[in-house]
Amino acid sequence: MCRPAEWLQGIDSRWWLTAFWLFWCTSTAVMLLPAQQLPAINIWDKAEHAGTFFVLMLLAWLAYRQPLQRLACLLIAYGIAIECIQFFIPSRSFSVLDIVADTTGVLPAWWIATQVQRP
Question: Are 49 and 64 in contact (CB under 8 A)?
Fold first, then answer.
């Protein structure tokens, strides 16, 4: 049985890039929809934020193989930017707690990536 790092390296990075950008575009579209047009998902809002940013961080790491700190900072900045944009969307609002939830999703994915990278 191969280790996770070996298995992940065997997948062409173009697949990870495609998966990242598809997920990023879909997530961004959903985050910028007016509240009344959001799909009905029965999950706590903060868990949705954390889960989305967890997946984004893992996919970004797999797609770009950049330093993890850089990827984490970029995704957290993206979360802040989304919240600022939501301020101007009717029926949406800026929320510091959403930024905290976004960061809460990034951090465990960062930790997992550091564990997989270790020899």
Answer: no
Contact 107, 52 (CB under 8 A): no
Cα separation, 42 vs 57, whole angstroms: 23
In angstroms, how far is CA 119 from the centroid of its own chain? Answer: 26
AA identity, residue 80: I
Q: What's the residue count for the chain?
A: 119
Q: Cβ distance 98 to 58 under 8 Å?
A: no
- The whole-angstrom separation of Cα 109 and Cα 45 is 19
In degrees and rounded to multiples of 5, residue 93 shows phi and psi of -150, 160
Q: How far is CA 107 from the centre of its chain?
A: 10
Q: Which of 50, 116, 110, 59 is nearest to 79 (CA)?
A: 50
Entry pTM: 0.84
pLDDT bracket for residue 37 (50, 70, 90) = low
Query: 39-94: per-residue pLDDT in tens?
Result: 565 567 788 899 999 999 999 999 987 889 999 999 999 999 999 999 998 888 89
